[in-house]
Design brief:
By secondary structure, the chain is an alpha+beta fold. It folds into 3 domains: 67 residues, Structural Genomics Hypothetical 15.5 Kd Protein In mrcA-pckA Intergenic Region, Chain A (Roll), CATH 3.10.290; 101 residues, Pseudouridine synthase; 106 residues, Pseudouridine synthase (2-Layer Sandwich). Helix content is 18%, strand content 33%. Strands 7, 8, 9, 10, 11, 12, 13, 14, 15, 16 and 17 form an 11-stranded mixed β-sheet that branches. A 4-stranded antiparallel β-sheet has the order 1-6-3-4, with no helix packed on it. A hairpin with a 2-residue loop joins strand 3 and strand 4. It is globular, with a radius of gyration of 20 Å. The two termini are 36 Å apart. The mean pLDDT is 96.
């Protein structure tokens, strides 16, 4: 049984929607079965699909414990710096309403209670995420990401054939906080920030789909997905900025994976200079 309390400040929500937000890796069939069998209790009362939850409610989930594995996937650690591999679909932290019973940070703190995230990945993007269980290492890592003292490489699948095998894209990015989205601009504008993305094209993965490696020189929200879509080569599986018709023809997760992180010799992460970490390929890439 999983006991949980809805965070303060959460507006009333359908129970099913709340469960999917709080435990995003919980299979849909497990949620549906639990609600059908009324295996979720809200403030002690058995609740079904039509139930609503609100701030302060006490939940008890009588769902198979195997769906609640909070063991983090650790690529490497010296107990000060933590190199984790985030599954696609798992948020790094709770959302702005405080909802997030299962996040990467929640998993890390089961082993390192003082762990802090050094940077973030979008929930649909998977791969390497750095965290720190030591304040000095965390400060160094924070400076490293702010001052471009780490190099990140992503492996992706992009649509359409490319005219050039490699290049650098430059533009500006404007955020729309209300819609939780961004827009690429080709001239500076109030509130917009410069973005720069390097790309290298590989072999075809299928007709009209190419392997591509992306290196974000800047690290803005949704930068790689929006920049590639604006470039005319949206990423496969990206329903937010990409080609939904193509995604229906080739159903898959967002094909974007943070596969390699390198700490250069002049990085503020002093004790880890020269190190390189590579995450195992995800299923869609191996396939």
């Amino acid at each position: 049984m999983i006991a949980h309390r809805v965070p303060e400040g959460v507006a009333p929500l359908p129970l099913e929607r709340y469960l999917r937000r709080a435990w995003p890796m919980l299979p849909g069939h497990a949620v549906r079965d639990a609600l059908k069998k009324r295996d979720v209790r809200v403030n002690g009362a058995r609740a079904g699909a039509g139930a609503t939850v609100r701030a302060g409610d006490a939940l008890a989930l009588y769902i198979d414990d195997r769906y609640f594995d909070m063991t983090p996937d650790i690529l490497w650690t010296d107990e000060r710096l933590i190199v984790a591999v985030k599954p696609q679909g798992l948020p790094v932290d709770a959302d702005r309403d405080g909802v997030g019973a299962d996040t990467l940070l929640a998993r890390l703190t089961t082993r390192w209670p003082e762990a802090k995230l050094c940077h973030r990945l979008d929930a649909p993007t998977g791969g390497i995420v750095l965290a720190a269980a030591d304040d000095e290492v965390w400060r160094q890592a924070f400076d490293a990401f702010r001052l471009r003292g780490v190099h990140k490489r992503y492996h992706a699948l992009a649509l359409h054939d490319f005219d050039r095998r490699e290049g650098t894209l430059r533009a500006w990015l404007a955020k729309d906080a209300r819609r939780s989205t961004v827009k690429v601009l080709h001239r500076d504008a109030p509130g917009a920030k410069p973005i720069e993305t390097r790309y290298r094209v590989g072999e075809p993965a299928a007709e009209g789909i190419r392997h591509v490696w992306l290196e974000p020189v800047t690290g803005r929200t949704h930068q790689l997905r929006a920049h590639m879509a604006d470039f005319g080569h949206p990423l496969l599986g990206d329903d937010h900025y990409g080609d939904r018709a193509a995604n229906k023809r080739h159903p898959t997760k967002l094909c974007l994976w943070h596969e390699r992180l390198t700490v250069p010799e002049d990085s503020p992460l002093v004790a880890y200079r020269g190190r390189e970490f590579t995450a195992p390929a995800p299923e869609w890439l191996a396939r």
